[in-house]
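To illustrate the input format used throughout this study, we show a single complete record. The first block contains the structure-token representation of the backbone; no residue identities are included at this stage. The design step must infer an amino acid for every position from geometry alone.
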């Protein structure tokens, strides 16, 4: 009897930690502070918002560390939700991840990457319209920026389809360079002496009141996007060596490193530019680099941003397919997506499917809509998965837990409460965009019913 090929356990502690770091550091840190400055009237409030977002991320990482050690399987929070709440809820989690969360995140980063590339090479500019295609709902314009974004997504997908070993080495190299750049840039800018610590001072007492809460919530939407990816290594649990030990450590260490780097980078931005300039800047990282390091830094910072986006997109492309792979292995999705290529030892069918769907999102979605849909969906799924810690502690108190969440129940409760507050604020301020994720849940229920009734994945 020929044994079916399975995923290989090849990821070490360093690989898993770099996967977390690489997944987190993307466009968010370079663009978000300008949006936050539009909501919050003080440099110290801005730093406080980034600290709050970092605390939420660390709390989430510590919470998922317990779940990851309990269920060291491919699929991340899909596995935790299915094990805790049943196959329907597990399917809805995987469905949202498949149709909204991961494709929208990949598309957002791919479009951002193409836009920054277009600033260096005008050929890839959005203004370069390549075709106009009539559609039932109107005309669909295809520009060079979209084409470049799709090409990048499909190219990275193809590379990672070759073998986990190849994809791992490429991702580790990119992430290591990202870390060096993100550390060197703010240190060089602060040491240049061309900024002013006076920018950190407030001209009037901080207007602390309950009226600030909606603004803080709005700021945390973008900050939450910048911190997304702290759970990346959990999706690769089936390919991790010594997962009971590696997963908790990689989550905690990777997330903590990124939180410290983000705080350092924001200190640099606030040192380099006055708050009014930050709030109106379309590219605050570039403007800060120019102000402290000179005009030639504009090209340097653009290249750094491109590198960071490329690494984050690569990490997302690697992790995402493991969810629909796990669903298919559990007979909750199309069986073909649960196969492993015998030579590459990666789920090629799932990776190719994700690449194609992400390309469709790029060609039909809007930049802002992609961001809001992806943040809302990912936070919603993460909260549901985090609740599994409480449920399992109650229902299965005797189950082996190689790692127990530090600070339980306060740490997971803090993460859940903070994330729910951000979700409610996003729903209140952007009801149409956020509702798209809720519509996707409704469609998912229908798809689940069709698949189970039609028995599209019959058991052997």
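Output of the design step:
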């Amino acid at each position: 009897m020929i044994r079916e090929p399975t995923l290989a356990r090849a990821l070490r502690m360093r690989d898993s930690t770099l996967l977390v770091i690489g997944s987190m550091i993307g466009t968010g840190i370079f663009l978000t502070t300008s949006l936050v400055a539009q909501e919050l009237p003080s440099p110290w409030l801005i730093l406080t918002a980034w600290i709050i977002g970092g605390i939420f991320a660390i709390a989430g990482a510590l919470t998922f560390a317990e779940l990851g050690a309990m269920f060291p399987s491919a699929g991340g929070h899909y596995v935790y939700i299915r094990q805790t709440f049943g196959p329907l809820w597990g399917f809805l989690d995987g469905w949202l991840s498949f149709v909204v969360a991961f494709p929208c995140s990949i598309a957002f980063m791919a479009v951002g990457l193409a836009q920054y590339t277009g600033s260096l090479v005008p050929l890839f500019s959005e203004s370069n319209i390549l075709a106009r295609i009539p559609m039932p709902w109107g005309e669909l314009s295809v520009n060079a920026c979209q084409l470049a974004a799709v090409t990048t997504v499909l190219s990275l997908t193809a590379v990672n389809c070759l073998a986990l070993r190849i994809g791992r080495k490429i991702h580790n190299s990119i992430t290591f360079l990202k870390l060096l750049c993100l550390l060197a840039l703010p240190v060089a800018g602060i040491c240049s002496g061309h900024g002013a610590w006076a920018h950190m001072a407030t001209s009037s007492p901080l207007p602390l009141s309950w009226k600030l809460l909606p603004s803080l919530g709005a700021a945390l939407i973008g900050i939450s996007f910048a911190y997304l990816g702290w759970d990346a290594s959990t999706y690769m649990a089936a390919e991790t060596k010594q997962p009971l030990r590696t997963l908790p450590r990689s989550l905690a260490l990777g997330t903590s490193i990124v939180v410290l780097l983000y705080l350092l980078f924001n200190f640099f931005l606030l040192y380099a530019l006055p708050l009014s300039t930050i709030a109106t800047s379309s590219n605050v990282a570039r403007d800060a680099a120019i102000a402290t390091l000179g005009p030639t830094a504009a090209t340097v910072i653009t290249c750094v941003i491109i590198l960071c986006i490329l690494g984050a997109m690569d990490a997302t492309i690697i992790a995402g397919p493991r969810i629909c792979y796990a669903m298919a292995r559990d007979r909750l999705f199309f069986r073909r997506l649960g196969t492993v290529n015998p030579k590459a030892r990666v789920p090629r069918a799932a990776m190719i499917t994700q690449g194609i769907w992400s390309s469709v999102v790029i060609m039909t979605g809007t930049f802002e809509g992609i961001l809001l849909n992806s943040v809302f969906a990912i936070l919603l799924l993460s909260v549901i998965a985090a609740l599994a810690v409480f449920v399992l502690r109650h229902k299965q108190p005797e189950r082996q837990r190689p790692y127990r969440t530090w600070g339980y129940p306060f740490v997971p409760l803090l993460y859940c409460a903070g994330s729910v507050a951000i979700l409610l604020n996003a729903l209140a301020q952007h009801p149409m965009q956020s509702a798209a994720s809720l519509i996707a849940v409704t469609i998912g229920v229908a798809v689940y019913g069709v698949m189970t009734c039609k028995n599209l994945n019959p058991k052997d």
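Structural context for interpreting the output: The longest strand covers residues 129-135. The chain has a mean pLDDT of 85.
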